[in-house]
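By way of example, we now present a protein record of this kind:
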Amino acid sequence: MAGKDVQILGTKKCNNTKKALRFFSDRGIKTHFRDLSEKPPSPGEGKNLASMLGSENLIDPESREFLEKGYQYREYDPLEEILENWRLIRTPLVRYGKYASAGYKPEEWLAWLKKEGLNG
């Protein structure tokens, strides 16, 4: 997209992350992938993502980690929790300039492409 790469954060084992990588690849859009299991978000990066998406949208309530630790039964600070435990993050996290999304959102990504004047 206009000389910038799409950044995709997820894990190599995550099917939705694999589908996101394929989505952009199929459209000839260069991506930069970062495996969260190797390099989780820094506090500054987590705060930036939370400000773009809302910290509650970064949490995956269907993740094994969320369910096993009983988050559904207690109150918690989403940003604090994802900074302590990246396994709670809804993947893939996809960023491009002013755009960001959490989870598999091909319709949203197509809208980005259209706004940027690229074919989706």
Helices lie at 15-26, 43-53, 64-68, 78-84, 106-115. DSSP finds five helices and four strands in the chain.
